[in-house]
Amino acid sequence: MATDTLKRNPGAGGATGGLRRLLLDNGALTALIVLVIAMSALSGDFLTTDNLLNVGVQAAVTAVLAFGVTFVIVSAGIDLSVGSVAALSATVLAWSATSHGVPVVIAVLLAVATGIAAGLVNGFLIAYGKLPPFIATLAMLSVARGLSLVISEGSPIPFPDSVSHLGDTLGGWLPVPVLVMIVMGLIAAFVLGRTYIGRSMYAIGGNEEAARLSGLRVKKQKLAIYALSGVFAAVAGVVLASRLSSAQPQAADGYELDAIAAVVIGGASLAGGTGKASGTLIGALILAVLRNGLNLLNVSAFWQQVVIGVVIALAVLFDTLRRKAGATPLAAGTGSGGGKGKQAGTYALAAVVTVAIVGATSFLHDGSKASDQRIGLSLSTLNNPFFVQIRAGAQAEAKKLGVDLTVTDAQNDASQQANQLQNFTSSGVGAIVVNPVDSDAASNSVNAADKAGIPVVAVDRGVNNAKTATLVASDNVAGGELAAKSIAEKLGGEGRIVILQGQAGTSAARERAQGFAQGLKAFPGIKVVAQQPADFDRTKGLDVMSNLLQAHPDVQGVIAANDEMALGAIKALGSKAGKSVSVVGFDGTPDGLKAVENGSLYASVAQQPSQLGKIAVDNALKALDGDKVQQTVKVPVKVVTKDNVAGFKG
Questions:
Q1: Whole-Å CA distances, 154 to 124, 352, 566
Q2: Which residue has the higher pLDDT, 395 or 307?
Q3: Is the pTM of this model over 0.90?
Q4: pLDDT band at residue 267 under the 50/70/90 scheme
Q5: CA distances from 251 to 81, 100, 547 (A)
Q6: Phi, psi for residue 10 in degrees, rounded to 5
Q7: Closest CA to 1 of 251, 231, 287, 396
């Protein structure tokens, strides 16, 4: 799927050969056209102005990151740190401007300087330290993410209003992130095609030793290349934080893989020497169209990952086949003027063909309107039994009431959830149910749905600074207090305990930790010897608890912010669990309740998640019908122990 200009194979001739060559030379563009046509035919919601603008917005951050990664890949390197550098740069901006009163202009410069500094460190380790790019940038990935968490103390930081306008629209319809993407793309194209450093990238990627022998100062050029990647990462981080109205310490997690995928899909070779900004943009658009279209078609988030992986594999396979066909790639800027004119003509022809075919397919959906009885449900994650139960309760109630329910998985990514909520809004669902990854980050998307007249119901966690029809939730703080009280009473008011915290930066982790702290105030004899995050994950709960036992072998109790971490802790404790060490979990998941029943888990603060899903759907329909709903619907939490687990239903 390459977009590089290729030398013709003299053996190819005639109309058939010309068409074959056109498709081979513009594989990524061809794939994008096919995708747009297919999505237009399959979904009547895809081909709308609002949704196409959504695609542009959703591609923006990935594209800006990918432009920077293009520089690195063209020079035969790799940069795994761009996602973390983006988060760190945004955190520095918000921390300096909001928390320390630094003028916004200076704060923005500090954010860009942060990206440059991270890139220079990468470049120095690679050029002078002789570290492989994979290792050097992998280390920076961890360092930058850790610094982001340290600076923010694990909590989102509000973004300055003047910078948050980067997430707005001009004239009420043109998204600023799309404009930023276009500007950064033009800069990347200029650097690659018109500058000395751009030519150096192709020379280094083509043959580093030959470039060095020809007099090119390779080490200094690598410093500049990785510094440029850092600048683009910083810009992407600022745009992302602007969309979310806050700097999220866990933002852009995994985005480096999307950025690399966009560059490869766009035709760049991981071996170096080839790649273009236009190809990278097309690669980012392909990923955005795929995710947007699959959301609209109600394809499972798990299958979406499979599809995207297949697309990346096909992109590399196509590039291999193209090269075997006898074509020789030319670096950007080295072709003739006629070649550039021909490429521009190809893009224009592609646009005309796409518009014509898409216009024809639109008749397939002519007169069709979105059903008012459609509800969109965006969950923070489906990699957790608690949220799987919320989905099950919502789906069962929707089926009972004859409602079409579309479920999406944000995978604990606030930006991805913002995209999903925008997709729901543009597709004209009747109502939206959202379980926010973060209460602050969801506000802009919820406000947009409200402006469109779509009622939004929050479930399990509220949405700050936005209007929702109702909040269906248990009280995480009250539940945390109950967990603390349960462990303290079990230990007789005295003992040494550890606390396994949830994923840093999430509202659920903060609220439950607050509840633990408040509940333990009433028991001065309980000493917390350690508190460590285990990210709501069973495996991490096992690892963290195993480590803590080395320093605190005499621990007598454990409080975990969810049942998954509690079950991991039980595995680490072995025979001590339920005997010399009491463990309290949170959520009341099926596995957690089984552990309570067999005695290894002393108690679980159960939130009845299936009831949360059921009640959320009921209230969404009430709001859709214009019926009055309560501002807050509380589902009681309950401490489930061995004494009452038999009669409990989640």
A1: 29, 49, 21
A2: 395
A3: no
A4: confident
A5: 13, 22, 27
A6: -55, -25
A7: 287
Is residue 40 within 8 A of residue 46, CB to CB? The reply is yes
**Banded model confidence at residue 333, pLDDT cuts 50, 70, 90:** very low
Band (7; pLDDT cuts 50, 70, 90): very low
Question: Backbone phi, then psi, for 566, in 5-degree steps?
Answer: -60, -40
Q: What tokens appear for 506 in the block?
A: 């999430």
Alpha-carbon distance 486 to 616, whole Å? 29
Q: What is the pLDDT of residues 574-618, one digit of tens each?
A: 999 999 999 999 988 889 999 999 999 999 999 888 999 999 999
Handedness of CA 413, 418, 421, 427 (dihedral sign): negative
DSSP label at residue 342: H
Q: Which DSSP string do the residues of 558-605 spell out, in sequence order? A: EEESSHHHHHHHHHHHGGGBTTTBEEEEEE--HHHHHHHHHTSS-EEE
Q: Which two tokens stand for residue 290?
A: 């795929």
Rounded CA-CA distance 30/265 in Å is 12
Strand positions, DSSP E, 305-409: 374-379, 404-409
Tell me the CA distances in angstroms from 157 to 91, 94, 380, one per residue in order. Answer: 7, 6, 19
6 pLDDT more than 50: no
Residues in the chain: 650
| 3-class secondary-structure state, position 275 | coil
Continuous segment of H or E residues that includes residue 135: helix 133-152
Integer Cα distance of 508 and 518 in angstroms:
15
Phi/psi zone of residue 599: left (φ > 0), alpha (ψ -120 to 50 degrees), beta? left
Which token pair is 220? 């200094």
